Amino acid sequence: MHPKVFTYNNTFTLESGRTLSQLHLAYTTIGELNADKSNVVWIFHALTANSNPVEWWAGLVGEGKLFNEEEHFVICVNMPGSCYGSLCPLDNDPETGSPYYHNFPLFTTRDMVRAYRLLKKDLGIEKIFIGVGGSMGGQQLLEWAIEEPELFEYIFPIATNAEHSSWGVAFNASQRWCIESDATWKEKHAEAGIEGMKAARSIALISYRHYETYFKSQHGFTTETEGASIDKQVFKAESYQRYQGEKLAKRFNAFSYYFLSQGMDKHNVGRGRDSVRAALQSIKAKTLVISISSDILFPTSEQELIAAYIPNAQLSVIDSYYGHDGFLLEFETIETLVKEFIDQQKKDNNKASLANTEASKY
User: Fold this and answer.
1) Fold topology of 170-261
2) Labelling 35: which of 260, 267, 309, 340 has CA 20 to 30 A away?
3) Which is it for the CA torsion 122, 138, 149, 263, positive or negative?
4) What's the whole-model pTM score?
5) Does 210 qualify as catalytic in the annotation?
6) Is 135 a catalytic residue?
7) Residue range 53-71, pLDDT digits in tens
């Protein structure tokens, strides 16, 4: 499935004050808009994913799944700065005619949402039935639900936060340090900093997983070296870290990784809006906040805060040993929670309507 491309040929101003003369976004759609355009499901991807959720969230999106083409018009946009079709550091800067590389502008999660609003308008979408996203995707979802309080009927922010924590910033800063320490990073070519990004991914994985995750899946030595002398044995955990770094390097670049992590660090829904609390209190969507019990990167306390401030929001905590990556893997539980929440909201609305009808008789 090839993504579509939306191009905006007018000036786009970022939070930093920097202006762009052109902006393009790659996006994937599944299904068709119904007659009254009431079946839109907008999915927000996380740091290194793409605009096709069938590839990275197959347990929830696709034929016969929770979000499917038979019932919904599913849309997912590749966030600007990423390398899957939207404006990115490897694209040419119109001012120089050469790739941006290190001069790529910072897109905050708020900038990203404001770009998506242009696409929404172009598609003629006025209401979104469901908004859902985990991690950095959840950050974007919250931003949009604040920017346009009447837009979403339901939102499901998963394993995310209202303001990126000092803990999260420290992880991202350490990863960027790895990239900066790569001797090639200052060079201007697509592979610059790639070895540093491999090491950065290794650090990221530790924050995405949990002690139990590694103990259950990476304990002991690799099969190839298990019977070798002790100085020749290789731990599964070490091999796994290297494998994941190499794997990401085959599909991503250090520039996108670097700038996207900065965008995550700048996430703060309270910026320019009095406070985080005031911003969250402006959300009008029916909200179920979902947390992963073993998440050390976005701990449950952050989702508790979101649920406490969004009016009438509910919180569900999934007991999982997968850590932060549980938002990608616990799809059966997520599906159950989403269905039950929507069903309960509909029942409550029906009861309220019936009560109002009865009251009007007197």
Assistant:
1) Rna Polymerase Sigma Factor; Chain: A (1.10.1740)
2) 340
3) negative
4) 0.95
5) no
6) yes
7) 999 999 999 999 999 999 9
